[in-house]
Amino acid sequence: MIRPLHSTPAQLPAIARCHRAAFPAALASALGHRYVAHMLSWYLASDKTFLFHIEDEQGEVAGYCGGVISDGTLPTGSASGMAQHSFKAAIWAFLTHPWVLLHPEVRAKWPLLRNNLLMKLGLRPKVHSTPAQRSARAQDPQAGLVVIGVDPAYQGKGYGSALLREFERRATEDYGMSKLQLTVRADNAQAIRAYERNGWVRGEQRGGSVSMLKGWA
To answer: What are the tens digits of pLDDT across the range 115-170?
Structure first.
């Protein structure tokens, strides 16, 4: 039986290894194991974020999932919050892995990286959600699935579906959320089909990403 487990700081290195196996071409993976572990610690830094994982019979992490509760209490969204949380680790990672500056994701994420650098240098005010944005989230709270990954060695064994079901359970039972959402690349047909098999429906498409929704009817 596949049983998701609540993640703790002690398990972050093992979850980081799973992340790098699941997303070998991602910028975070290229920045190194230490950076990924620090990035994932963002999910353990607030009572509005959560992280859990699945282990095999030998105790190896086979997959993991991270989510956030958007109800107007967090000062930023997940992307900005994670970037600010991991800023120092990212600077160190770039200094020790300078070749990563040529990574294709750097260009795509340059506005976010630049803004966080200016904020840390005091040359730009920190980005926070506006009162209107926080009020809107408070009036229409939802749970967001930020990341879900399965080590390729364990794919096709039901781990992804088990993680998705656990995310839904935690969001609805532990946090009382009825609306769930996530974002996936629009060209990731396999992932979209998997979400649809689990009752998610397509939402709005923006650029190369499409939102998936559940409980919004």
So the answer is: 766 676 666 666 565 666 666 667 789 999 999 999 999 999 999 999 999 999 99
**Rounded alpha-carbon distances, angstroms, from residue 114 to 11, 109, 110, 120:** 31, 9, 6, 10
CA distances (Å), 61 to each of 2, 53, 65, in order? 12, 7, 11
Does 33 have pLDDT greater than 90? yes
Identify which of 204, 34, 202 has the alpha carbon closest to the alpha carbon of residue 213.
Answer: 202
Q: Domain coordinates of the chain in residue numbers?
A: 5-178
Considering the entire predicted model, what is its pTM? 0.88
At the topology level, CATH places domain 5-178 in: Aminopeptidase (3.40.630)
Distance from the Cα of residue 47 to its chain's centroid: 15
Mean pLDDT in the chain?
89
